[in-house]
Design goal:
155 residues, 7 strands, globular
């Protein structure tokens, strides 16, 4: 009986290792998209803003595909910085200044942080058009993000 117990322990340890190794290779989230994560409406506060930064970091580390596939405003637009991002033509991205909408306070540092996540062409466009100067939402369609600014289309 003693040998059976050792065998069962060894099998249990092996099962744990297989499970652990399998989980370690999993993507950052099961389905990498704005719609599946429910993050299309931006960040209400600094903690929520941090969640967007965490998602970006996780997807950049994993290399998993991330789809901008729906309504994407405010902090959500920072997902454009994910190295394996794609955009659906039907998506709508809305740009505005960073800060606290509830308090009506624009934060230049947050605005700059958001701007730094866009490619050079999009940065230039939203800056020239003053999209990042106020809390007013300025929409750009997914198809325009793809055609005009060179972000990859989702296949």
């Amino acid at each position: 009986m003693h040998q059976w117990q050792r065998l069962l322990r060894a099998l249990g340890a092996l099962g744990f290792l297989c499970t652990f190794c399998g989980l370690a290779g999993q993507p950052a989230y099961a389905d990498g998209s704005v719609s599946s994560l429910g993050m299309g409406y931006g960040a209400r506060d600094q903690a929520a803003f941090g969640r967007f930064l965490n998602v970006i970091q996780q997807y950049n580390a994993s290399g998993e595909r991330f789809r901008i596939d729906s309504h994407c405003q405010s902090a959500c637009t920072m997902f454009l910085s994910i190295r394996n991002v794609c955009v659906t033509p039907g998506a709508t991205l809305l740009f505005h200044a960073g800060g606290s909408m509830q308090k009506g306070i624009i934060n230049p540092s947050t605005t700059q942080q958001m701007l730094s996540t866009y490619n050079a062409a999009l940065q230039q466009y939203v800056t020239d058009k003053h999209f990042m100067d106020t809390f007013a939402f300025h929409p750009i369609s997914g198809s325009e993000i793809i055609k005009r600014f060179g972000y990859p289309a989702c296949r």
